[in-house]
Design brief:
By secondary structure, the protein is an alpha/beta fold. Helix content is about 45%, strand content about 15%. It has a five-stranded parallel β-sheet, with helices on one face. The chain has a two-stranded antiparallel sheet with strand order 4-5. A hairpin with a 2-residue loop joins strand 10 and strand 11. It is globular and about 70 Å long. The N terminus is likely disordered. The structure holds adenine.
């Protein structure tokens, strides 16, 4: 039996992230109007930003959470731009010592936006420095050790922290409570992804059939970063085959070569499902056992594979562990009998 509050592991870096970083940079919208989708968030953010602008103040601190690749960093850039502010970027894992954060905070200028990516990986000590900075714009520093140690307090200029995380549940309660607003970025609709792909194809200077963009959108896990990566692979395929346009066939062939199926599942996703079916009779199976059977990192399973498999109804997380759904069996081509799963 797996308890609900089992300590969650912190995921390692998603290996695809590095490759995606420069795609993001090239295709990231640099204007608010060009950001497609997440309409509710944009509407709410707009009110917060316009009110802050009207008062000539910094906006409240903001938390963006949701799966990787959904546009949290892009949104942070756009918020800074809309506020006419400088954006300073750092991340949870790079802030190792208190001094690292103190250096960044003490260099902030009035109105700056500080973006901390992967905020769930901030260590406890760093969080302790962050609390008073967020709450009362004070930086408390301890110089020296033991009886001779002295504390200094430095006033900070008005600034806005934007924290992004894939795992809001791993943020400490006190940190979470210091944000004026939290926004959960959801998976995009196919129509939104198609619009993003159309824009990206234009930026890349490549022609693509609407049916090609539709096939890529459907295989994109409803995630712009993945969609853009697949578009680039389809462009490669068309290019080496001397096709001036990415046709539907080119897109489908490129996806097939990448072993990505029509639901966007990769071999690792299918392996995860088939291991649960074959070795654990469809589940329930505990996450630790599953990670060992897959020989993969638990954090990656929880953070990368599972959310999408659950969102499309192929996998369930139950208190007793993971279970493959009837849809999951069907998708992998397993037969289902009248009175249960075979
Ligand atoms: N590229 C990545 N995410 C995007 C978005 N939400 N809108 C437009 N282009 C994007």
């Amino acid at each position: 039996m797996e308890s609900q509050n089992t300590k969650k592991s912190i995921p390692k870096k998603d290996p695809k992230r590095e490759e995606d970083a420069h795609i993001d940079l090239a295709l990231r919208p640099s204007n608010w109007e060009d950001y497609i989708g997440q309409e509710k968030i944009k509407k709410n953010l707009r009110v917060i930003l316009d009110a802050a602008l009207k008062r000539a103040e910094s906006s409240d601190h903001l938390l963006f959470y949701g799966q990787a690749g959904l546009g949290k960093t892009t949104l942070a850039h756009l918020v800074a731009k809309e506020m006419g502010a400088n954006l300073k970027v750092t991340s949870g894992p790079t802030l190792e010592k208190m001094g690292d954060l103190a250096a960044i905070l003490s260099n902030l200028e009035s109105g700056d936006v500080l973006f901390i990516d992967e905020a769930h990986r901030l260590n406890h000590q760093i969080e302790e420095v962050l609390y008073p900075a967020l709450e009362s714009r004070k930086l408390h520093l301890v110089i020296g050790k033991g009886p001779g140690a002295r504390t200094f307090s430095l006033d900070l200029p008005p600034f806005t922290l934007i924290a992004a995380t894939t795992r809001a549940n791993l943020l400490s309660g006190p940190l979470r409570s210091r944000f004026g607003a939290s926004f959960k970025l959801d998976y995009y609709t196919v129509a939104d992804i198609e619009a993003i792909l159309e824009r990206s194809a234009k930026l890349l200077g490549v022609a693509a059939e609407p049916a090609a963009l539709n096939a890529i959108a459907k295989a994109s896990r409803f995630t712009p970063r993945i969609a853009n990566r697949l578009l680039k692979r389809a462009r490669d395929y068309a290019e080496v085959n001397d096709m001036p346009t990415i046709t539907e066939e080119a897109a489908r062939n490129a996806l097939e070569m990448l072993e990505i199926d029509e639901l966007g599942l990769e071999p690792t996703d299918r392996q995860l499902l088939s291991i649960i079916i074959e070795k654990f009779n469809g589940g329930p199976v505990g996450i630790q056992t599953l990670a060992a059977a897959l020989n993969d990192d638990r954090g990656i399973i929880e953070d990368v594979y599972e959310p999408y498999l659950m969102s499309i109804g192929l996998l369930n997380r139950t208190p007793a562990g993971r279970r493959v759904t009837a849809e999951g069996y069907k998708h992998l081509g397993y037969k289902i009998s009248k009175d249960g799963l075979l």
